[in-house]
């Protein structure tokens, strides 16, 4: 008999269904040689300081710093019943080994190991490591279980993170609270995040906008603009001296814009915030729900590529995603799998993509937020394997009264992947790009009109929670998978 330990009841039920463990008991399912149960999040947590020494129940400057030599753990107050069930299951004589089936990541590993050690279990265990909750993925995962010891380093990394949080949070909070006579919470992630926000708001408050001026001239079928001037008088002088413009530079180059990569968690959060207005947490919650419903792959990933063994099935998946969320005026799409496949850029989990369960899903039953995220993920898969976007870019520079004026134009040669991008999903707008006429160096052009444009420098932008997720990764205080 094998005891399978999942992270949530819903995940345990999906696993039990595949394994044939259909008999429901209090806190677990059993059958076909398996017992399947769950943790309900963090069942076991680090003990508070007063557990180590009663004197720590009162906050005192003289007692700092507090550094446990032998770390102790406690069962969370609200989960004692489930922990008791797991402890009994681990102790059953007919249970010969365990399978760690918590989320395939650092925190999932920690959840299982803490329960395993707190229960005093010494039985061997294996690791289920999958990136999809599809039945076929679960089945393949159980056919290829890995030794639990392969993930010792991941567990130790989780312990380091957890204990660093405890040391910084407990000691710094007590230090500043006793010094200032009020509760001042300090945390390893929270305080640097607050510092970033304070520094950005200070920069915004101290910002003083400056006016600038540009001169815009109208020519035969297009406009060109000068550089910025600090005073209106300087711009006015240029305006008065400009009547005939002479072409100094005229270049036309064909350029290619590659499709955007598949989503990892942070890029999905950023896009969902920009397009849909969702917070980072909302996007994570919606994507996690879709994962547990088997509709997308594992969300807490830092990779934007797929593995080579997935390439052969990609065409069918792309077609399924495209027909599930069709794009107006597009009948079929190419599939360039090589654009999204790179084993070297996949670590624990590949990029977030939809699954084949799309064909069984009744989209009308999905909550609005989950449906919107599913559409983003499906559309990005189709876009990422699409043809490149090709265009001709024209750059013209002119001399008018001794001042250089410049303009750019663009003519689309091939829409490529941009034909698949939803109207509200475009990262760049080409609406204001001119189509320029053919000109040659030395051509003289009569100025049909001049206009002075006034502008103002902009302050730094306020942070959003999505930007915070990115910044915390950049400075190393939080990982993408824990955002």
Written account of the structure:
- With 483 residues, the chain is an alpha+beta fold.
- The protein folds into four domains: 2-165, Rossmann fold (3-Layer(aba) Sandwich); 166-206 and 462-482, no CATH class; 212-258 and 388-454, Distorted Sandwich (Topoisomerase I, domain 3); 265-382, Topoisomerase I, domain 4.
- Helices cover 35% and strands 19% of the residues.
- It is built from 13 helices and 16 strands.
- It has helices spanning 9-19, 49-52, 80-91, 106-118, 135-143, 152-180, 190-206, 232-241, 265-276, 280-292, 314-324, 368-384, 465-474, and strands at residues 2-6, 23-25, 28-31, 34-38, 44-46, 73-75, 97-101, 125-127, 146-147, 211-218, 223-225, 244-257, 389-400, 403-414, 444-446, 449-456.
- The strands form four sheets. The chain has a seven-stranded mixed β-sheet, with helices on both faces. The chain has a four-stranded antiparallel β-sheet with strand order 14-13-12-15, with no helix packed on it.
- Helix 9 runs antiparallel to helix 13 (465-474), helix 10 (280-292) crosses helix 12 and helix 11 crosses helix 12.
- The longest helix has 29 residues, at 152-180.
- The radius of gyration is 30 Å and the shape is flat.
- The mean pLDDT is 93.
């Amino acid at each position: 008999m094998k005891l399978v330990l999942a992270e949530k009841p819903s995940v345990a039920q999906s696993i039990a269904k595949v394994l044939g463990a259909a008999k429901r008991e209090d806190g677990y399912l059993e059958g076909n040689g398996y017992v399947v149960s769950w943790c309900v999040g963090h069942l076991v947590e680090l003990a508070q300081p007063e557990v180590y020494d009663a004197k720590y129940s009162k906050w005192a400057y003289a007692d700092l710093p507090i550094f446990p030599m032998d770390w102790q753990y406690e069962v969370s107050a609200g989960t004692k019943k489930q922990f008791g069930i797991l402890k009994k299951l681990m102790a059953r004589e007919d249970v010969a080994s365990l399978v760690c089936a918590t989320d395939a990541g650092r925190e999932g590993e920690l959840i299982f190991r803490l329960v395993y050690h707190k229960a005093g279990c010494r039985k061997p265990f294996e690791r289920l490591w999958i990136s999809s909750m599809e039945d076929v993925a679960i089945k393949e995962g159980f056919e290829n279980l890995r030794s639990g010891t392969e993930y010792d380093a991941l567990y130790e990394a989780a312990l380091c993170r957890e204990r660093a949080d405890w040391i910084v949070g407990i000691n710094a909070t007590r230090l500043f609270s006793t010094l200032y006579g009020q509760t001042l919470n300090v945390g390893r992630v929270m305080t640097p995040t607050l510092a970033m926000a304070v520094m950005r708001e200070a920069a915004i408050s101290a910002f003083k906008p400056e006016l600038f001026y540009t001169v815009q001239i109208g020519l035969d079928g297009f406009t060109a603009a000068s550089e910025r001037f600090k005073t209106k008088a300087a711009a006015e002088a240029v305006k008065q001296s400009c009547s005939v413009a002479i072409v100094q530079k005229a270049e036309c180059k064909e350029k290619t814009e590659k499709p955007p990569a598949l989503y990892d968690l942070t890029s999905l959060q950023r896009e969902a915030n920009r397009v849909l207005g969702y917070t980072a947490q909302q996007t994570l919650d919606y994507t996690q729900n879709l994962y547990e419903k088997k509709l997308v792959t594992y969300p807490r990933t830092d990779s934007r590529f797929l593995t080579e063994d997935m390439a052969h099935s990609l065409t069918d998946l792309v077609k399924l995603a495209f027909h599930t969320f069709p794009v107006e005026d597009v009948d079929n799409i190419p599939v360039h799998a090589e654009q999204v496949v790179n084993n070297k850029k996949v670590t624990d989990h590949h990029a977030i993509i939809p699954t084949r369960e799309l064909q069984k899903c009744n989209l009308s039953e999905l909550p609005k937020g989950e449906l919107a995220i599913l559409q983003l993920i499906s559309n990005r898969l189709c876009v990422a394997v699409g043809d490149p976007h090709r265009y001709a870019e024209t750059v013209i520079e002119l001399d008018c009264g001794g001042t250089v004026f410049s303009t750019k134009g663009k003519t689309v040669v091939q829409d490529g992947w941009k034909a698949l991008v939803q109207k509200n999903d475009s990262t760049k707008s080409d609406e204001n790009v001119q189509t320029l006429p053919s000109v040659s160096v030395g051509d003289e052009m009569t100025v049909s009109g001049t206009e002075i444009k006034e502008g103002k420098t902009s302050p730094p932008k306020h942070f959003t929670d999505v930007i915070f997720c990115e910044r915390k990764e950049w400075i190393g205080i939080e990982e993408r998978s824990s955002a």
